[in-house]
Amino acid sequence: MSSILTSAPPSPSLVSFGSTRASPPLDSTELEQPAGQANIELEAKGTRHSQYYFKDGNVVFLIEEVLYNVHRYFFERDSAHFRSILETVQGVDDKNPIVLPDVSCSDFDEFLAILYPT
After folding, report:
1. What InterPro entries is this protein classified in (predicted)?
2. Which of 49, 69, 79, 117 is close enough to 57 for a disulfide, judged by CB 3.0 to 4.6 Å?
């Protein structure tokens, strides 16, 4: 067993795996930033809905300063209006939601309750 340990080839040098270009230095402010700090900027346009902000959602709506992250499938399948909106870059994340100014949170919640029955 000791012969295996002594006869093993040496580990390759880390230098051989990297590029010849030097990496840019780390910004110390990035390291000091608290873990939740990065999410504050993302949530700046509104607060996330407690029920209808899904981790796997793929379209974000902003209604009365509340963010909804839901599944675009329902909107693309059933609405030509939303199909055209979803062709743009709107609604891809919390920083660029689709704003629905003429819709109330209570109305949108009732609509989503049909799509997502509990």
Report:
1. BTB/POZ_dom, SKP1/BTB/POZ_sf
2. 69
